[in-house]
């Protein structure tokens, strides 16, 4: 009897292992990830710190100090990378005049976002993917435009990640378009990202995902003294802020409170980030941002785009929004000496892996439906394929209480019946490219 049990156990184990789907790393994306250089990241931040303050309301005329010199330098770096991109990368300063608001802008300013656009190679693919960090910095008084505000981590780290992503990714070709942007005005109430998001909405940009990087280079926390460079937080909204009133009934009826576009993007960041970057766990935080706080992805979600915030696991408030000083042996200020460049390297690599996978992948499947014609303990899903470049599809499944997708079923067909009840599980479908890159998942609507 004991021998029979052992034989059955190992037979079952063998069947289970052979039934598993193996997801491989794409060779190009793996090369990009391995190319991320901690020394390059440090050199970018050293240069940004050299501008003294990068306050949005600081000098825009000087060639060596203030926000004007800083944003021109970022554009110059993008322009340098454009030379290696066969004309596909273009760099420019996108400006808008901001009038005094009686709050955080006390005089008229010309606000500028440093932008680089890596045009997709497929003229039929109108998708756009955005990665951002904010260039401006501050000290304790947000209206102080003259005191040194190094902004090494907040948010020199995010901008350095964006610059490094542009350097590496401009050497490769993607079907979809990628926009790299260092926005200004974050500390002045998200002015630069608000300008860009409103422009994207007005002009009809097809932004499928926006990754906002804000403070991704410090590994330690004030007060709790936690030191850890193996975790990265991704914040995403649950119920959509855009047109919730129109969609609330359907969300409630189908149990999709945890399945908005931004939450799906956050899950995607976790899966792809952990696939390509070793010794890093992506932590899903079920909030749009930190408690009662905001970031540059917020204007995008408010305009209906999928957007998330990537940020370090442990914040150090001694080195954030602080005047440079030493008190009772404690050194305050956002200085480069308090950063962990290996941690920044890993977090930058997450962005590159996610962006590359998205921009390489085919467009999402269209008209994804779950059949409800008859009561059934199985689930039948069907969809339409995007125009080209599709190897097949993954049908994703998870229990309603699970934060991540638990099973992936591959099919070359445009329909699939699974022996799992839609009463007990949630489903989605994603396109799979010839090179195995996956699109964002699409949650099915009701079909009959």
Give your account of this protein's structure:
The chain is of the alpha/beta class and 448 residues long. It folds into two domains: 27-360, Aminopeptidase, CATH 3.40.630; 366-447, Sandwich (Immunoglobulin-like). Helix content is 30%, strand content 24%. It is built from ten helices and 17 strands. It has helices spanning 2-19, 27-35, 38-49, 66-82, 156-169, 191-203, 244-254, 261-276, 298-302, 341-360; strands at residues 89-98, 109-118, 127-134, 177-183, 206-213, 231-235, 281-285, 307-312, 325-327, 330-332, 366-371, 379-384, 390-399, 407-411, 415-418, 425-433, 445-447. The strands form four sheets. It has an eight-stranded mixed β-sheet, with helices on both faces. It has a four-stranded mixed β-sheet with strand order 15-12-11-17, with no helix packed on it. Strand 13 (390-399) and strand 14 (407-411) form a beta hairpin. Helix 2 packs antiparallel against helix 10. The N and C termini lie far apart (51 Å).
Explain the layout of strands and helices.
Layout: H1 2-19, H2 27-35, H3 38-49, H4 66-82, E1 89-98, E2 109-118, E3 127-134, H5 156-169, E4 177-183, H6 191-203, E5 206-213, E6 231-235, H7 244-254, H8 261-276, E7 281-285, H9 298-302, E8 307-312, E9 325-327, E10 330-332, H10 341-360, E11 366-371, E12 379-384, E13 390-399, E14 407-411, E15 415-418, E16 425-433, E17 445-447
Parallel strand pairs: 3-4, 3-5, 5-8, 6-7, 11-17
Antiparallel strand pairs: 1-2, 2-4, 6-8, 9-10, 11-12, 12-15, 13-14, 13-16
């Amino acid at each position: 009897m004991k021998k029979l049990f052992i034989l059955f156990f190992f037979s079952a184990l063998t069947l289970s292992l052979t039934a598993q789907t193996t997801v491989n790393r794409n060779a190009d994306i793996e090369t990009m990830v391995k190319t991320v250089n901690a020394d390059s990241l440090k050199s970018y931040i050293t240069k940004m710190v050299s501008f003294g303050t990068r306050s949005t309301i600081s000098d825009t005329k000087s060639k060596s100090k203030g926000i004007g010199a800083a944003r021109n330098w970022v554009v110059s770096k993008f322009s340098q990378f454009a030379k290696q991109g066969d004309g596909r990368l273009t760099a420019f300063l996108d400006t808008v005049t901001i009038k005094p608001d009686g709050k955080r802008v006390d005089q008229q300013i010309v606000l500028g976002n440093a932008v680089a656009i890596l045009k997709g190679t497929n003229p039929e693919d109108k998708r756009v993917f955005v990665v951002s960090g904010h260039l401006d910095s501050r000290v304790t008084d947000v209206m102080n435009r003259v005191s040194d505000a190094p902004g090494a981590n907040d948010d020199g780290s995010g901008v350095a990640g964006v610059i490094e992503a542009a350097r590496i990714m401009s050497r490769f070709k993607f079907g979809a378009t990628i926009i790299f942007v260092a926005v200004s005005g974050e500390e002045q109430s998200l002015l630069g990202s608000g300008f860009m998001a409103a422009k994207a909405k007005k002009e009809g940009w097809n932004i499928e995902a926006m990754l906002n990087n804000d403070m991704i280079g410090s590994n330690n926390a004030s007060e709790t003294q936690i030191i850890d460079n193996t975790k990265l937080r991704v914040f995403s909204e649950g119920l959509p802020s855009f047109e919730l009133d129109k969609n609330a009934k359907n969300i409630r009826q189908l149990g999709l409170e945890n399945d908005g576009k931004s939450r799906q993007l956050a899950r995607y960041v976790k899966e792809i980030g952990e696939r390509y970057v070793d010794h890093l766990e992506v932590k899903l935080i079920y909030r749009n941002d930190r408690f009662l706080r905001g970031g540059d992805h917020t204007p995008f979600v408010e305009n209906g785009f999928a957007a998330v915030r990537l940020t370090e696991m442990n914040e150090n408030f001694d080195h954030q929004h602080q005047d440079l000083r030493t008190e009772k042996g404690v050194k305050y200020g956002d200085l480069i000496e308090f950063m962990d460049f290996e941690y920044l390297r890993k977090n930058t690599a997450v962005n590159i892996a996610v962006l590359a996978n998205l921009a390489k992948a085919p467009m999402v499947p269209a008209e994804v439906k779950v059949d409800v014609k008859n009561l059934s303990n199985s689930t039948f899903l069907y969809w339409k394929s995007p125009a080209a470049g599709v190897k097949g599809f993954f049908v994703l499944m998870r229990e309603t209480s699970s934060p991540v997708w638990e099973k992936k079923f591959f099919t070359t067909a445009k329909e699939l019946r699974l022996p799992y009840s839609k009463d007990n599980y949630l489903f989605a479908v994603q396109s799979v490219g010839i090179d195995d890159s996956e699109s964002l998942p699409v949650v099915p609507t009701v079909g009959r």
